[in-house]
Amino acid sequence: MSEIAKIELxxxxxxxxxxxxxxxxxxxxxxxxxxxxxxITIDTGYKNTGATKSSITFLDGELGILHxxxxxxxxxxEKASFPEVAHLLIYGELPNQTELNDFESxxxxxxxxxxxxxxxxxxxPAQAHPMGxxxxxxxxxxxxxxxxxxxxxxxxxxxxxxxxxLAKLPTLAAWAYKNSMRHKxxxxxxxxxxxxxxxxxxxxxxxxxxxxxxxIVSALNKLLILHADHEQNCSxxxxxxxxxxxANLYSTVSAGISALWGPLHGGANQEVIEMLEQIHNDGGxxxxxxxxxxDKEDPFRLMGFGHRVYKNFDPRANIIKKACDDVLQxxxxxxxxxxxxxxxxxxxxxxxxxxxxxxxxxxxxxxGIIYKAIGIPTEMFTVMFALGRLPGWIAQWKEMTxxxxxxxxxRQVYIGKTSREYVPLSKR
Length: 428
Ligand code: ACO
What we know:
The protein is mainly alpha-helical. The protein folds into 2 domains: 47 residues, Rubrerythrin, domain 2 (Single Sheet); 327 residues, Orthogonal Bundle (Citrate Synthase, domain 1), CATH 1.10.580.10. The protein contains 18 helices and 6 strands. A hairpin with a 5-residue loop joins strand 2 and strand 3. Helix 4 crosses helix 7. It binds acetyl coenzyme *A. Acetyl coenzyme *A (ACO) binds next to loops.
């Protein structure tokens, strides 16, 4: 017999169904609440609201568990390639060799972007933030592929749009960087794998050969996998909301990129490095900055600390911290910011303020140090996050459209003025 929740309102008891997920997560189904009682629920910031049923990513914030389609993030980050993980998220299963070859070669067919798009880049100021450029460029893709405007076309047509997006985002991301320096764009090289090709477009110059370092490729592969999906976070919820209006996939993902840009979300990785640099330039007094973070009168927060759902540790942060030591050691990089980050983590984790609020380093705390070590400029950090998150956004959009979910439209409790008469201008 399935569980029932009882709610008493105005002296009357109503029964609401309880649904249970495959990992025993329980939810009260309130979809008929207003119809039955006239009441709605309120939950600003959706701290306690399940927006959908999903079979893509499972996470347990208390136990620090993260699974993509049932596979642990630890195993995937250690053993898989980013395209394998993208296939897993988008199509539900790890590909066999033939499926992986087909998937990768289909993506490689679309890595070029239309030459006309190059002119858009020229119009941006050199100091344009690459996230702004990327979001606009991705949205513009819809104007080059008008057949994508109807997201409900055949599976074949949907796949074409999905593969185009996976292929072109790295090109547009790398070009946003090249453009910021007014350097020549490097065209994609399809003999490279996904990560190698991106590094080539970022760092190769027409004047000299670029050696794609396998240590850097492997670090990038791991970082992209760790960022590939994270269930109903801010940018993914944005993607699902925008997609629910049946907007095309390019505009939908562009909205996700904009949401990711914010410093409380993906923009935190840039903020972390800037914060560590600030502490370093200020003499490296970590205790002073921890005090500032605790001071409610001071807007400063420890960037890369705290998470809406992880309350013991962020499993991605544990993997990244180890990878960070490993990559810096292999590349022979000695970054003083790493020492500051470790000290900051130690001090904060022993401090009552952080302990009592369950504030731990999140995925962004150490990722910036690796990005810095592999030569990615600070302004590109959030773009790197977008590159990793793309398969997750696509998978969530695909699931939502396939499940024919209704348009996303929350309600509100109105607290403004009640009805009043218009006062003519002369009498105000
Ligand atoms: N530094 C100092 N205090 C913090 C921090 C922090 N980084 N994060 C949370 N707190 C405090 C808050 O001031 C609040 O204290 P109070 O209870 O005394 O008022 C308490 O901890 C709870 O914080 P909320 O902001 O209510 O928690 P919420 O779940 O809404 O926010 C968030 C989570 C946005 C991640 C927050 O912890 C934060 O701003 N962190 C820094 C930015 C960051 O690293 N963002 C990346 C998140 S991971 C990602 O999106 C990929």
